[in-house]
Design brief:
Elements lengths: L2 E3 L8 H5 L5 E3 L4 E3 L9 H5 L5 E3 L1
Antiparallel strand pairs: 1-4, 2-3
Length: 56
């Protein structure tokens, strides 16, 4: 199951920098995770200062 980024996202980009497969990109008002690319590793959740990425 891919991770999803909640509305708690503050658009800091820490999750995108931490993603080993570049599955995260800046969206409209928050970052978004491409579910087809996500490998469910949790690196984004570990890097996020506001705990926005959640396992779906």
């Amino acid at each position: 199951m891919a991770y999803k980024i909640s509305d708690d996202c503050v658009s800091c980009g820490a999750c995108a920098e931490a993603c080993p497969v570049s599955a995260i990109s800046e969206g409209d008002g928050k970052y978004e995770i491409d579910a087809d690319t996500c490998i469910d590793c949790g690196s984004c959740a570990d890097a996020c200062p506001v705990d926005a990425p959640k396992a779906d």
